[in-house]
Design goal:
It comes from Desulfomonile tiedjei. One of its GO terms (cellular component) is plasma membrane. By secondary structure, the protein is an all-alpha fold. It has a single domain, classed as MetI-like (MetI-like fold).
């Protein structure tokens, strides 16, 4: 009961502060809408179907890019972390490219792949790759060498060592990266949809800004927050299912 109270204390405090400022702070609704207006805007988006449609479009794009980029990131991260040769080979390229803000590459991807879904999904995949590959490399490199030596002494081959020793030991680090990546994919997508989109939650934000409809904008931001929270919760649930030996331990970063 006390833990539940702690969880809702900050949101309630934020809501009370928001209500007080919007009601008694003499701030224009064009700058800060009140909570009631935001709720009405959210209901109107739900009733019109705009929220469901644009959420579906954004979720499809972000998950497509996330799955592609994360798969490549985990696969190559295991290879790089396991081999000193591949680590030396890829280290400079990975650290150079990952320092570039991925949203800054949006215009380049649009020129290369057009204004359709391909550019958005590929940019998300590109971003997701770098958020996944580094934790995977570190997770593999930090596996206790004693485990590997013990497995080898018992006659395990390289494939058995990888699947039975390396992967389970590196899994917590990999999932920490995936938790970061799944919400980052949504952030990158919204930025791209704002720049070059004709649908999706980012486009909905851009349209609301153009119409000076702050209530719609705040309602969309709320929907994005809920979506991001649900994606993170799904990753935590999946992590607990795939890592039952960590039951009772937190996956928090």
């Amino acid at each position: 009961m006390k833990q539940a109270a702690y969880k809702i204390a900050l949101p309630l405090l934020f809501l009370a502060l928001w209500y007080s400022i919007s009601r008694f702070g003499h701030i224009s609704p064009l700058i800060l809408p009140d909570p009631e207006s935001t709720v009405r805007a959210l209901i109107s988006l739900i009733q019109s179907g705009d929220l469901a449609l644009n959420t579906y479009v954004s979720l499809k794009r972000s998950m497509g890019g996330f799955l592609l980029g994360s798969f490549l990131g985990v696969a190559s991260g295991i290879l790089i972390g396991w081999s000193h040769f591949w680590e030396d080979f890829f280290d400079l390229a990975i650290n150079f490219v990952r320092a570039i803000p991925k949203t800054a590459l949006a215009p380049l991807f649009i020129v290369w792949f057009g204004l359709g879904d391909s550019a958005k999904i590929l940019l998300i995949a590109f971003s997701s790759y770098f958020f996944t590959v580094i934790p995977t490399i570190e997770g593999v490199k930090n596996v206790d060498s004693l485990y590997v030596k013990t497995a080898r002494s018992m006659g395990a081959n390289e494939f058995q060592i990888m699947t039975s020793v390396i992967m389970p030991a590196a899994m917590p680090a990999i999932f920490a990266g995936l938790r970061l990546t799944v919400t980052t994919a949504l952030i990158v997508l919204v930025m791209v949809e704002i720049v070059a989109g004709n649908d999706g939650l980012g486009y909905l934000l851009q349209e609301a800004r153009g119409n000076l409809d702050m209530a719609i904008m705040f309602a969309t931001l709320f929907a994005l927050g809920v979506l991001g929270y649900c994606l993170d919760a799904a990753m935590q649930y999946l992590g607990k299912k795939l890592m039952p030996w960590r039951k009772g331990k937190t996956l928090s970063m």
